[in-house]
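> @MW can you paste both from yesterday?
MW: sure, first one:
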Amino acid sequence: MNKRIFIAISISPALQEIILQWENNLSNLPVRWLKGKNLHITIIPPWYESDVDSLIQKLKDMEGKTGAIELTFQRVTFGPDPRSPRLIWSEGKTPPQLPILRHEMSKKLEQKEEIRPFLLHLTLARFRQEDFRNFPVKTLDETVSWKETVRSLVLMESKLSPAGAEYEPLATINL
């Protein structure tokens, strides 16, 4: 059976707590906030896979090749297009290791590589574009200083439902 999977960086419980406190300031917005295990940074976007065990073995072959990666998020905005947004996300400067890692993993996993340059971002909330016109605020550009040391990646399964996606970790890959 095919599973919808992707490669991600999980967000630590410490940073999850900081984000949760920050979100309290915007609790009046009609958005679906991502919480806990659903907070992640996508490295390779979702695809359908039938042989997950073989894939996990390929990922395990890549362990220990990168080392820890430092992430810093500097601002929270509406995105990806601030004029017609569908997300609230936090952005930061992309560490040089991430695009290289994404390229190597795409090749190893035989996944079509994204054409767009890698943009470090963390989705905090989702909403329908058409709902934005009723938002009490139309601009969001808040400076933050959120830091995360990444020591592993996660193979996640994405389970879609009308209430939104839920993510389940299938394997951890140490950097």
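MW: second:
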Amino acid sequence: MKWCDVNNSILHWASEEIVVPYVSPVDGHIHQYFVDFFIEVKTTENKIKKYLIEVKPYKYTLPPEIPKRKTRGFISEVKQWGVNTAKWEAARKFAATQNWEFMIITERDLGRYK
């Protein structure tokens, strides 16, 4: 993440360092979610904020559209959506316990952070 390296407001960052347990709706078992990034930022008000950040293509942040025929591909998309939402909810709860914020960033957001 070159942006983190050259941004003076970033105090610390790490990739896939934070692991959050979550229960998969597919198999009901506990799995480990390696969140894409942990970032510690100094705000313009000189406060320290910490974020867990997941980077995903925008289309994967929306539930799959229901097709006329429910193909294997659609069933796979539904399973993946269920797993992703379980991961994200677990990350939100974990972040809240640490007084951090969880964010999902897509290609639509990246232009704002250049």
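> thanks! The chain has a mean pLDDT of 92.
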